[in-house]
């Protein structure tokens, strides 16, 4: 099996893990997902993979389902076991993106359920070797209306894709969303933090962001291994000119420096210092995340 996936309790090829075109998950974007990075390390011929905060990612998946009223028939432990089966079948030799995808469907009887698919994809090339360049999204991110951005739903990501493509057509790597109040939110795939002298500033959930699990993990690393003070606060567009550094962070992306946001340019020395703290912590994460590590031997 080249690319195994777990779908509704069965093992199938990822290419065969299909969702009906008439399903509510497709027609009305009633689909949610979550995922974390699968770190792969090797000793001789033996490989070991691990995740950080898998239980938090699954809890967020369940919360997203609850927010949309999607019935998720599997428990947390069953979703972990599904991931374990996929990992054992794949036996990856490099880091992967581990994903849980839930799409609502209607049966012929009219009852509503959900297709659940668990799979892993290569992260090769996902993170660029150089600092990122962001442009401002053309559309404001409206908060306080519609589905909250704390819900990781496909409707949010599908709408963001157009903005990403527009930014790339103009020579940028991605875009940054600003809410209707002129406050910085996030990018389509990552949270943001900003370096201000001895402080790190991160936008607030109420500003229109997903509450990032990697952001929380980095905050833990910063508290243990640096003198930076972490401040969750409102960040306006006018504040961007005052920062000495900026970074993007997500489970798949990691923690990476930004060199430009629209007209604002940043020295990457300060940003790299923060990114290096994260990369160093990932060399031996068990020392920092004692209760949040799930290991998989094969």
Automatic annotation (TrEMBL):
GO molecular function: transaminase activity
Transmembrane parts of this sequence: none
Keywords: Aminotransferase, Transferase
Pfam families named among the record's database cross-references: Aminotran_4 (PF01063)
Annotated InterPro entries: Aminotrans_IV (IPR001544), Aminotransferase-like (IPR036038), BCAT-like_C (IPR043132), BCAT-like_N (IPR043131), Class-IV_PLP-Dep_Aminotrnsfr (IPR050571)
Family: Belongs to the class-IV pyridoxal-phosphate-dependent aminotransferase family.
Name under which the protein is recorded: Aminotransferase class IV
Lineage start: Bacteria, Pseudomonadati, Pseudomonadota, Betaproteobacteria, Burkholderiales
């Amino acid at each position: 099996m080249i690319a195994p996936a777990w779908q509704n309790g069965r093992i199938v090829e990822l290419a065969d893990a299909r969702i009906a075109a008439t399903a509510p998950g497709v027609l009305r974007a009633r689909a949610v997902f979550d995922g974390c990075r699968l770190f792969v390390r090797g000793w001789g011929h033996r490989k070991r993979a691990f995740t950080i905060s898998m239980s938090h990612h699954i809890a967020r998946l369940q919360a997203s389902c609850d927010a949309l009223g999607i019935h998720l028939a599997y428990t947390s432990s069953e979703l972990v076991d599904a991931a374990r089966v996929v990992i054992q079948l794949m036996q990856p030799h490099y880091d992967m993106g581990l994903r849980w995808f839930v799409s609502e469907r209607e049966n012929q009887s009219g009852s509503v359920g959900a297709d659940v698919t668990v799979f892993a994809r290569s992260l090769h090339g996902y993170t660029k070797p150089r600092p990122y360049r962001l442009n401002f999204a053309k559309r404001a991110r409206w908060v306080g209306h519609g589905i909250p951005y704390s819900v990781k739903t496909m409707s949010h990501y599908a709408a963001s894709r157009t903005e990403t493509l527009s930014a790339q057509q103009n020579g940028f790597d991605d875009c940054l969303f600003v809410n209707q109040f002129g406050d910085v939110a996030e990018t389509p795939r990552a949270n943001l933090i900003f370096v201000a002298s001895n402080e790190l500033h991160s936008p607030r959930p109420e500003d229109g962001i997903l509450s990032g699990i990697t952001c929380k993990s980095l905050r833990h690393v910063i508290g243990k291994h640096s003198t930076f003070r972490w401040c969750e606060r409102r960040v306006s567009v006018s504040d961007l000119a005052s920062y000495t550094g900026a970074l993007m962070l997500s489970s798949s992306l990691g923690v990476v420096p930004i060199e430009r946001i629209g007209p604002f340019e940043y020295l990457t020395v300060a940003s790299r210092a923060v990114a290096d703290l994260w990369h160093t912590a990932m060399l031996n994460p068990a020392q920092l995340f004692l209760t949040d590590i799930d290991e998989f031997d094969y």
